[in-house]
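Our consortium's second objective concerns turning raw sequence data into structural hypotheses that experimental partners can test. To show how far this objective has progressed, the report includes one record in full. It was chosen at random from the queue rather than selected for favorable results. The single chain below, 142 residues long, was entered without modification.
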Amino acid sequence: MEEHKNLIVVPWDFTPVASHALAHAVKISRMVGNEISVLHIVDSGISAKVVAEKKAQLQKLIDENGQKYNVPISWHIVKGSIFTAIAEFANEKEASLVVMGTHGMKGMQKLTGSWALKVMVKSKIPFIVVQDPPADQGKYQN
């Protein structure tokens, strides 16, 4: 099995909170020297054309953000459900951390639990869940 103990995984859904999570991952990466991998989950029945479009979007994303933050970023696309695929990927790669954006609990999620929580319980890897961007790119103090 390929080992990536110095890997920070950032689940990516093309939303602002995913961008906030990436900014936090960059900040952490600068402190501890970890690599960053953006992970996009797609449905199992997705067409090859749509996968190719997603790959192009992800490549553009990491090119732009790699230059913006001056850090190397890789990407992966995995077919499956976010509730299992994120944890499976992070566990398989033996990542050191997952930094995930959340939109907060809405409606029925208040009764059944947030999607973020459902993702985290499947993982052996620590999670940081964020909604807002970091206040600055300085080091975390606490």
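The partners drew two points from this record. The beta strands are 7-11, 35-42, 73-79, 97-101, 127-130. The first helix runs from residue 16 to 32. Both points have been shared with the crystallography group to help prioritize constructs.
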